[in-house]
Amino acid sequence: MTPRALATTAKGTTIMKRWTTLAMCAAMLLVSAPQSHAAAGPVIDWDPAYMWQPGGAFNNLPAGGIQRMVGTVSGFGAPLAFLNANIPAREYTFVADSMVSLGTVTFGPPSTQIYQTDYTGGVIRLYEDVSPDAVFAAFPPNPQVPSTFEDGGAPLLVGYFTRYTVTTNNFTAFQTGSIEGDINWVGGTLLPYFQTIGGAVCPGLFTGGATWNTAPNVGIPGYLFRHDGKIDLQCPTPTSTSTWGRLKQIYR
Predict the structure, then answer these.
(1) Based on the domain organization, do 7 and 104 belong to the same domain?
(2) Signed CA dihedral, 148, 61, 224, 138: sign only
(3) What are the percentages of helix, strand and coil residues in the chain, rounded to 5?
(4) Which has the least CB within 10 A, 38, 134, 135, 168?
(5) pLDDT tens, 101-157?
């Protein structure tokens, strides 16, 4: 092959590589979209929260049953880090209710079964009470539950569950599982702290481990689960736009 032919071939190869790279980058621009990320730490943290559902068991949460929960907050993170959950003169509590079971689905052989229950609906509300009195009284609902968890005046936050799932099993040593979901925040005096620069409200990720162990200090009569959990914020990640001309300049 002549030098000129070699040069032509090399030039063609270079052009082909350049356009292949451009095509790949263009494809990335076409399919890229804003993604979500969680904050560095939980915005709300708790241990414990307790759940109950009349007629339910850890391995069978019948369709149509309504699960409810009450909890005491143990810590806050950004953007609510200015709140102190360890001041004796006040308490932060939350109440969630109206989660309607879609029925439990069982997976696996009898000795190692996993039970998953999805729910629809549900609302969660966060309160601040300057007269601490919350108590996990047995066999809710009763005169103390949920009333002592929602007597702090106007809610600090109000959100609706867009997903809520309880997952348990029959083989873990300490009878543990998980309860998690997604929250769409819609109200409360602290709602502006969850807004992005553009005004959108960051969704919440509700997550944590649960136990159905009935041993003292873990189980309280009348409750199905004790939950050690948190809420993370899932704020959208900003994406920058570009043009085809600018992209071509990079690879020239």
Answers:
(1) no
(2) positive
(3) 20, 40, 40
(4) 135
(5) 999 999 999 999 999 999 999 999 999 999 999 999 999 999 999 999 999 899 999
